Amino acid sequence: DDEEEENLEAVLSGMHDQSGVQGKKKTTATNTKTAAAPGTLSTKGGDSNAHGADDDPLAGVAKLRRSDRYRRHMALVAKYSAVEASEATLRAEENNEEYRLVVESNELLARAEAEILTVHRYVADLYATKFPELETLVPQPLDYVRVVDAMRNETDMTRLDLSDLLPPTVVMVVSVTGSTTSGVPLTETDLEACVRGCAECVALEQDKAAVLSYLESRMAVLAPNLTVLVGSSLAAMLVGMAGGLEALAAVPAANLVVMGQAKGGQRGDLGGFGNAVQMPHTGVLFFTDLVQAAPAPLRRKCLKLVAAKASLAVRVDAFGGGSEKTSVDDSSQKKTTRDTSSGFAFREEIKAKIEKLCEPPKARQVKALPAPDILAGKKKRGGKRVRKLKDKLRMTEMRSLANKRAFAHDFGTEYGDDSMGVDFGLLGKEGGSLRAPPQKESKSKTPSGAAAQHQAQHKKRKMIQMSSGATNGLSSSLVFTPVQGIELADPTAAQAKVDAANAKWFNRTSGFQSALPSSTAGPSGAGGLTV
Question: pTM of the predicted model, to two decimals?
Answer without folding.
Answer: 0.53
